């Protein structure tokens, strides 16, 4: 973002005169908030904001808040916004501030917005700490797809997100998050969505804090209780384990995978599948695939065991 101030003014005026439905702002090369002119931009259906991080670029908090207010105005001017994506860098986003959606969406409680409630259907939030205040859910009542990760931060507030979604009666069709962010609140919310959820992706994301014991207990509950409830509706299931733990495909959970007979895509992790000792697991996977749709696409991720020291 090394362009001179006049360049942003020209772009803003052009977008005002010739609106486009989809805009991506990527601040990966740094930025000066005062140079960014967003006035007049609106009527968006999709907005992506990437790498807007104060620590990485030395931007002061007041300047960051100024830029957030500019984006809030853009969103207020986009009543038909259906997709919102906000991504900060896992190593640079300030943990004490996090990503608060209140900074970007209109505050309907204040009565200042002229657009009323937004109708966001697809939301992607990726930061070290994510906050969704109660009043923000009025903009998410039609939400269908949620991709949300906190990079495994110990200060993650994702449990509140899943709890609020359930309290507001919002059932999702697609969920993407990290395996390391899975907790009992999310597992209970997945059960709540058993009649709507068609895609579930649990990724092996960047981990700033990882509780291995909790991960194993959550995996056991997921395979023994949750997945079998989701099985009739699921079309896509991706589970990528961060370690050689109970999230990996094996003899303890292959029957749960086999119950998902309507799958079109399946991704699983197998421990050292290049080694002779994994032959039994590979045979179980072939047995499981035989129970699934003939057209199912299966991907395998290899999880290597760390060598023993001493």
UniProtKB/TrEMBL annotation:
Protein name, per record: Uncharacterized protein
Species per Swiss-Prot/TrEMBL record: Hypholoma sublateritium (strain FD-334 SS-4)
Source lineage: Eukaryota, Fungi, Dikarya, Basidiomycota, Agaricomycotina
